[in-house]
Amino acid sequence: MTVAPTPTWPVCGHADCHGVVVRERGRCLAHLSASDRQSALLSVAAGNRADYRGVPFTSELVVELRRWTQGLLYEARFDQAVFSGDVDFGGFVFSGRAEFRDARFKGAANFDRACFRGGAEFAKAVFEDDASFDDVSFEESVDFSRAEFRGALVMNGGYVTGRLDLSRARCSGPVEGMVFCTDEVRLRGTLMEQPVRLQLAVPRLHCREATFLASSELLMQLAEVDLTDANLAAQLSLFQHYGRFQLPDGSHMDEVWLRRRLPRRPLSELVSVRGVDVSYLTLVDMWLRRCVFFGAHHLDQIRISGECYFASPSRSWGVHGGVPLRWAQRRAIADEHLLRRGVERRERNREAWVEVTDNLPGTVMEPAHVAQLYRQLRKALEDNKDEPGAADFYYGEMEMRRLDRNETTRAERWLLHAYWLLSGYGLRASRALAWLLLAMCVTTVLMLGLGLPDRSPDQTVSGDLPRGGGHVTLAVDKPSPVLTLPLADRFSSERFEKTLRIVLNSVIFRSSGQELTTWGTYIEMVSRFTEPVFLGLAVLAVRGRIKRG
Known about the structure:
Blueprint: H1 34-45, E1 49-51, E2 56-58, H2 59-69, E3 72-77, E4 82-84, E5 87-88, E6 93-95, E7 98-99, E8 104-105, E9 109-110, E10 115-116, E11 120-121, E12 126-127, E13 131-132, E14 137-138, E15 142-143, E16 148-149, E17 153-160, E18 164-165, E19 170-171, E20 175-181, E21 184-186, E22 191-192, E23 196-201, E24 204-206, E25 211-212, E26 216-221, E27 224-226, E28 231-232, E29 236-240, H3 255-261, E30 269-272, E31 281-284, E32 303-305, E33 317-320, E34 323-326, H4 334-349, H5 367-383, H6 387-403, H7 410-423, H8 429-451, E35 460-464, E36 473-477, H9 493-507, H10 518-546
Parallel strand pairs: 1-3, 2-4, 3-6, 4-8, 5-9, 6-10, 7-11, 8-12, 9-13, 10-14, 11-15, 12-16, 13-17, 14-17, 15-18, 16-19, 17-20, 18-21, 19-22, 20-23, 21-24, 22-25, 23-26, 24-27, 25-28, 26-29, 27-30, 29-31, 31-32
Antiparallel strand pairs: 33-34, 35-36
């Protein structure tokens, strides 16, 4: 149980009351006579500060406060105030900063349509019943840090010009609402014990170390979401919100207010799931270009559906070993970008693997780590029947294995280099077809120049005739085909047609039956091995790209 701090103001003292005394009255607002209370409230209505720290409010006293002040309070101070019974601050206008720090609401608290024109602070406040902030307007930041909500927290149609801070708050009841916020919503370390249903239009949503104990949904627009070290004990779904925000009564929130104050993004963006067990996480239509997966647990069980966009290689062209190479267009994760920047710095400075993130000092990421991330994400996409996406992550996994000098042997790296060069790990059909076409062209030229004879040699028969008669033994000998044509005459259309038949039969691993020179025989043997391999790699790559389960 939270213990209220010792008051730092002159207290009433009536029956251990800790309410601040009204100037020149010697008692707090709750223990004044009716005439003195009316006079004190009229003074507040005239523009004096509304100082009610530690005052015990009843529902009737709040009604009286509304009647004499017309619901307009200047520099309102309700620190450590205790509200017994249901209280209605609906429609109140708080001019200047409003303080409800350490306040306790023992009944339902209603702040519907209230307007806070300065900052508002409900830090460490306790709401023992439902708290409603429908259609509320905070014209500066509002602080609910370490507050405790034992009933439902509802904020449908809330406008916050600034920051909405619920850090370290405890929500024992359900949380629902629809909020526009110009700065950020902080749920750092917040404990959500019941389902959360929030629709948010906000630049940033910080859920670091937040705990969700019940199935929850966050529908967002324009948000940058950070889930680092969040504890998901139940299903958490992050959705991109499309269209207008519709309130329960059928009306819509002010989209003009939103467009004027919030940055434009194509989709809401998740930036980190480090330290999170993502087996309960579902992402739908999210921007994942900068999302860091390093340090997440059970990535193979994450659910990614809809149009979720990952990063791509940082440049269209790059230089490897002094040779300009074009980066393959594919889906990549931000961890690979961080790793490659570390590799570049290591090679430039001749140092060991370096730190990869500013907010994880001392953390070292190696290619084997990123390969494992790709492997787990690939399985997650395969389970979701997204074969093309899984193929991209397979490509990324192989790239990381090719870069790894610790877990991958030199022979395996050479094999991976060859696999990458010839067919993009069996995923780049154009590359395999290009090699096939090149092999066919080389085979054709070699056959024309060396392998196809100009004529078939005549057979010769030889043997011995016994003198005394008897059987005659004859030996039929066929010399090897020869090529005697001048070089200029070997490349004719007639010879090309024969050569083309030989090459096409080699592609499908068949012998043409054509007589060849010794050189031609060896050339055909090599082509009958290499060209079907290139064709098979091309077919495999096409199948991997178009298969959708």
